[in-house]
Amino acid sequence: MSTISSPTEIGLQGPPTVSGETFVVPVDKDKYLVYAPLRRAAFVANPRVVNLLSAIKEGRYEAGNDPGGDGLVEFLRRVEILDAGPEFVPNKKYSGIPSPTSLTLFLTTTCNLRCTYCYASAGETPAKSMALEVAKRGIDFVAANAVEKGEHTFEINYHGGGEPTGNWHVMTESLAHARKRAVELGLGPPTASTASNGVLKDEQIDWIIANLNGGVSVSYDGLPSAHDRHRLTVLGHGSSGRVMHTLKRFDAAGYPYGIRVTVTADQISQLPESVEFICSHFGAQRIQVEPSYPLGRWRGAPSAETSNFIAAYRLAQAKAAAHGREIFFSGARLGTLTNHFCGVSQDTFALSPDGNVSACYEVFSEDNPLADVFFYGQPGDTESGYRFNLPALDHLRGQSVQHREFCQGCFAKWTCAGDCYHRAVSVTGELEFQGTDRCHIIRELTKDQILSKIAASGGLFWHEAPSVTGSPARGKESLL
Amino acid sequence: MIRNRPEFHLTSVYEDGARDEPQIVPVTALPWETAMSRRGALGVGLGIAGVLSILSDVFAQEPQGPTSKPAFIPPTEIMACKVPTAALKAHDQGVNTLALTSDGNFLISSGNHSDVKIWDMASGKLQKKFETVKPADGNHRYHLAVTPSGEILSSWFAIGINTTIQFYSLPDGKPISQIIGNLVDLRSLAISPDGTILAVAGLAWGQVDFSVELWSLPEGKPLGAIRTSERGSQLLTFTPDSNNLIISNDNGPLSFFSVKEHRFLSGANNTNAYASTLLVLPDGQACISGHMDGAVYVWAVPDGKLLRALRSPSTYGYGHDVKALAITSDASVLVTGGADGVIRCWSLPDGQLIREVTLKLSEYEMRSIVALTFTRDGKTLISADDHGQIILWDFPSTPPGVPCFRSYLFDSAATPSGTKAIAYNLYDRVTGRTITYTLPCGSPIPPGATCTCNCVPGTSAPSVPQVPYAPPTTDTICSCNKVCTCVPVPTFLR
Q: Which residue of B has its CA nearest to A289?
């Protein structure tokens, strides 16, 4: 049996000090989750532990006066909540002229479906499709940046406020151009991926399997009845049969893909069965589950961002676990320590069909009411390159979590990192983040993840070495 | 809608005034197993003393006492020791040799393409890498040794160019001095254990005989040359007292040379195949040679009498050259590594084969084990192969002679693009440090280890629920975060 040592016996001088940011989250009556996110440490304790730790933080604790406290100090040192030196604070930020090596192309606003909850209202907005020259300009720009930075290659993502494969000619020709450009510049083959509604012809599936080495994210809502209620063709028919055909072809080819499940309020109760259906029938590498966004065609619809969603999500997690799989929700990601939810603050370089530069995957058109906020660049006057609105870009760069007053006291701040800025602004109408209904979901699911970590680590505490995320980029990037 | 700002920072919570004992509350189930209420996932609180007691049980891994003579254990009976199969590399073009510093803090490895890497053994991480000089004409062979004073000694030669021996400092790898010798076709290097003599074997320039040149260290002054034979001197090694030099010759015999008296003492001449590796026992009373025909011989020093011949039934036939030798500090277990990719463990002095571990790239491709060494505490065996991998093996004293794969020494720059890996942390109770090891996807991790996540974001949920806290008794598959469990090596590490 180990002895409980006083601080002097273990060679430390002076009173113990709390090593960094520590949170206390109630989980039950007289039971609190003590969580230090940047130490990746957590445990559940009674109020006495919390109050002793609080006394240490406030300098009110005296060693030797309290045998229970001395033992607690020993334990807290083991999990690096006390006396562990400075913690790594994620502080990835950009400055100066952006120099991206990843390109997103919003190929078209047209779509072969009319999903009821479409955030882009695809099919109801003026049809715009990107010209090949627009795509090539963007490709040449990121390829040149990759050479200048000494990177191995560059990346292309196809996205849409519509279905990207609807602009098939530009998708295929632009990738061919990207490959050619990479060879000319001595770069490795570019990584290419796309989002898709999965309603594809077989020859399109063949091309994707053969060419998109970065995989596909397919929107698919699980049970055919659930999928067909909301994801309809132009003629009002369900699209599940076509999408399942695509998924089965991907599985047969061993092609990597992810599934994105959108859950509307009326579908919440079916979520566990939908996940069970997906896990039983398809081999998706990643299953993302999101409540429907109150945007676009779904603005004003009943919200799915409710406690019922949390309950259904938990049951769905159990279903996935029974198949040895996992589901995930974008805001609850304990595996990440970061200061940004997405690329909005990280110089995302996404081109609208007209060739202007947006930082947000959901703001793909200059007609968007928030275009002034999220568009920050346009083609330059010469044949290549872009002009950037640095004040607009710097505003976006400032959307990392350390600049969010609202988030400072939240225990999920270094994993959620402020959630989706566009969504928050669209829903609240406020440029300054004031929280949304998603915050509660994020906190509850993050809490679940922390408790899962503790359970998986033996049940008493969780402690892992923090991992460094992110890759170097220019503008200038600093990591503290 | 105005929402209250969340505030969860550490602060006191309400107590009813009683000074309860501080308690840690176990989490006994996964949250989704208990539907909406977390109460079902929480156990009864444990006092701090009990928690610390459990923690010390986990970290304590007291070795068992020695057993009697070990019996050969067929591989099928060993369930916990897995054999690695995937491609986490230390060198992209094969390892040439290994050398451990005398304090055990650093392992130096050289690759087939003049790359030298310094590994910090406390953390398991690559500390430094550099390239030795490459001759312009491309004809070169590298040898590596480490002086007792902690300098790396690396040599190279090219046909037609004199032997150059370059010294590098540790741990920064800076070149410090050079010796230019008169030998070409360098065969071997050895440094005396007292660090005062460097012996170099090769063909003397302009001569037909092979020679061994002796140099003083650290001055680098020539001490003389020993003519050996027309057939050449392949390998060199000093006895632990630094008095004698053991030389293997091209046609098989060993020669024992007294450095002080500058004369040959005797020789061992009972083998036809030439030695491909040499080792001296810690007490200096015997030496061991491994041969191209797969045989291993134990010779008395200095009279050269054959004490024991070791051979496994699986080594008859082509391709079983013994290329590497290592011995435990108590000389009770000899480990051999072969061109057939097999690590064999033998009990000494009886010479009984205890265990064979085969490293294979595929059903038809095997690796060649090119170097073996033990750490100072004898608990870890380090192997290197011509595929570029350096593997760490747990080498418990009970049962003796049964290496269990633990981890790789891993350089992301040498690892093929697209390789995926997992990482786990293991708390080293002796040093008080947490060491991160890297393994191929799906590998089991040892008891007490915790997973880390090493790149892309994702949620975290265990795939295998654990029972209330108890030291695991079997290997555990890494189950931290399925997205992070098995991911490509980050490009920014290349």
A: B459
Per-residue DSSP letters for A252-296? Answer: HHT--EEEEEEE-GGGGGGHHHHHHHHHHH---SEEEEEEPPSSG
pLDDT attached to residue A170 = 96
ipTM rounded to 2 decimals: 0.86
Contact B25 A51 (CB under 8 A): no
Q: Which long-range contacts (C-beta less than 8 Å, at least 24 apart) are formed by B342-346?
A: B342/B314, B342/B369, B343/B369, B343/B372, B343/B381, B343/B383, B343/B393, B343/B403, B344/B312, B345/B401, B345/B402, B345/B403, B346/B296, B346/B310, B346/B401
Q: How far is A80 from chain B (nearest CA, A)?
A: 12
Question: CA of B150: how far to CAs of A178, B101, B126, B169, B373, in Å?
Answer: 51, 6, 17, 7, 17
Supply the pLDDT for residue A98.
94
Structure tokens at A20: 């960094």
| Full-model pTM | 0.57
Query: Which residue(s) pair with B177 in the sheet?
Result: B167
Structure tokens given for A402: 């350390």
Backbone angles phi, psi at B375, to 5 degrees: -75, 165
B36 contacts on A by Cβ (under 8 Å): 310-311, 314
Tell me how far apart the alpha carbons of residues B213 and B217 are, in angstroms, rounded to a whole number: 13
Measure B417 CA to nearest chain A CA, in Å.
Answer: 11
CB A336 within 8 A of CB A413: no
Which of B202-206, B225-229, B298-302 shows the lowest mean pLDDT across its residues?
A: B202-206
CA distance B247 to A407: 72
At B62 the pLDDT is 32
